[in-house]
Amino acid sequence: MLELLVAMSVTVILLGMVTFMTGVSMDGYKGSRDKVLGGRQAKEALEAITQDFEAIVARADGSDNMWLYAAVEPKLNGDTVGNTTLAGPANKKIINAPRLIFFTAAPDRYDGDIGGDADNGGDVSAVSYRLVYRDQISGAAANAVGAFPSFTLYRHLVDPDDTFTNVLGQANLTAAVAPAANQFTDALDFTAENVLAENIYQLTITLLIQRANVVERFTIGGSAGLQQYHSLVIRGNGIATKADAASAEVAEEGQLVGVEIGMTVLSDRGLVMTQKGGMSRQDIINEYGTHYTDTISVPRF
Fold this sequence. Notes:
By secondary structure, the protein is of the alpha+beta class. It is built from five helices and 13 strands. The strands form two sheets. The protein has an eight-stranded antiparallel sheet, with helices on both faces.
């Protein structure tokens, strides 16, 4: 009986050790998998933004036509316009998410069938990027979070034909002259086909403007302590910024020469933690987030 008890005790100890080691291995595997998946999401998003900015199109033609719009996402950051619940769960909201609209010679215009039957010869597309907290599974309305939300980066590409007809030549890319002509509404932006990447928790855009021999950084939104702007627009007659939504535009001298992108990606576990209590936003980022950056040189115009 004593030998049996000793054998059982040893067996229980060994099983406990095996279970513990298996748990540690599984946690390590899940952590590594989440980092790989997060890296893949970031890579796809950064590649898309990089390709679009490298092929940006603008004309210094002296007109009031807008060629680039970069501003704090109007549905986030406590803005009074729109549904701020799209920023995320309470106390875990996205605190930096610029809305981008500009023109580019996108390589995937005409659904990537360049030179095919659908190609009518246009080479300039309009594109927008928006980061919000919502889902595409439950069929929620464009301004609703839905039942299965995630922090999702959307890329809405308008093919050259519609761009030429409805977008080019507008003084305000977010509010075209006729509502039917505005290609960048919530209903058109937030569709399943425009989903670029999920689990993107923060997106920082800094526009690099060269003045004489000095390059200055214009960060849209941004972290505390940095020079921040509510918006920066490029028109045919120059560059203008706003300090906040209520301010008047201020003309800026210079030429856009580059863009810096900062992106924070959460693991699946981090996404779960944003929906639960007990951890602050910064703790979630430190524990479950990975930050990626890229600097893009843009063509002169």
